Amino acid sequence: MSDYILAKQNGRKIPLEDKIFGISSRAKNMIAEKGAGQVINATIGSLLDDDGNLVVLSSVAEAVKELEPVDFADYAPIGGIPQFREAVKKAAFGSFQPKRFTEAVSTPGGTGAIRNAIANYSEPGDKILTSDWHWAPYNTIAGEMGRTIDTYRMFDEQGRFNGAAFAEKVEELSEAQGSLVIILNTPAHNPTGYSLTLEDWDRVMDSIKSAAVKAESIVLLVDVAYIDFAGDEEEYRRFLPRLEAVPENVLPIIAYSLSKTYTLYGTRCGAMICMAQTEAIAAEFKRVCEFSSRGSWSNSAKLAQVILSKIYGDPELLKKVDQERAGYREMLIKRGRAFEEEAKKADLEIVPFDAGFFVSIPCDRPDEVSKQLENQGLFIVPLAKGLRVSIASVSEAACRKIPGMVKAAMEK
Ligand SMILES: Cc1ncc(COP(=O)(O)O)c(C=O)c1O
Description:
The chain is α/β, with parallel strands linked by helices. It has a domain at 62-315: Type I PLP-dependent aspartate aminotransferase-like (Major domain) (Aspartate Aminotransferase, domain 2), CATH 3.40.640.10. The protein contains 14 helices and twelve strands. The strands form four sheets. A five-stranded mixed sheet has the order 2-8-7-6-5, with helices on both faces. Strand 5 (179-185), helix 8 and strand 6 (217-223) form a beta-alpha-beta unit. The radius of gyration is 21 Å and the shape is globular. The relative contact order is 0.17. Bound molecules: pyridoxal-5'-phosphate. Pyridoxal-5'-phosphate (PLP) binds next to helix 5. Pyridoxal-5'-phosphate (PLP) is lined by residues 45, 109-111, 135, 185, 190, 223, 225, 257, 259, 265, 270.
């Protein structure tokens, strides 16, 4: 007997509530009951200041105030306004000038880019490859379209990126399916905070090139949602030239999001940018992705497209935005370092962390431990392989407190 009344399950397992939003609402209820001082809500994936207020870059907020009604009320073309399509390439690539054919298609956030890449470069029933530690909505996005997520072990025994496990899975799935979509979320991976090194990238590209000899197509979707919170913008774009040295049947796509970089989460703006070896593959990319957009959300909202176009049309404004973000990035990195320091003191093992919004802790009883911590007023997210702490949403003082609390709960 199905648990469903009228709705069709269609192979999906739909929980009664979204896990993260559910935990977060329990945290809010406890705050209402006991006061904010008694609760640490480390579940939220947005950057908050030390007082718990959402950080909104003031330079971006000023630009929003100067908009004309037509800038936000009008439809944008399906693939985005022309100025945005150019601006978003500059935002994603920085000073790197790709030699391949690039096309940008606007999407509602990075989520839309992930959705359209899976829709157009895999088939129903296919497995999409990503690491065992991963952003849970990849499963939802894939499941909505009759695909599933398959994984490789992200870290080896020494805590380094597991290039061998990656290579093995790429080989296995591309051989079994003929084509493969791979999602790599780096730098400042969610949920671990890991950034692939250039050596890791060499391993990744070698594996893909070797599998591509027999495969029909391999799409490498690089989800860079946190790229501008990883550290120096240019340094963390140094992997980009690695994406060019691949044969024609390998298509790198950048999933770019304005949510974190411009603190424009709710405006739902992002883009998918291809790096194709031929003009025909790039033109096909634009055509099929715009078609998918039309059939799912139609046009993306215009507001943030205009904002990004204005930022990239005004070097002074761009400088202001970058400087302001750098300040918050420092705040976030300091929180991460504080967390690492305290974890070391408490002898708490964490997954290798470089930067970003989250730190992860391996744990084989994640649901039990997080429930116990909730009773003590600490709200974190249980994942399949451990616990995720959002350092983006709590103060440095809280980052110093959390490791000891988690260690004690894990020992009970
Ligand atoms: C790993 C990862 N990818 C992509 C996204 C996409 O976010 P959005 O659709 O809000 O741009 C997020 C947001 O939390 C994320 O954590």
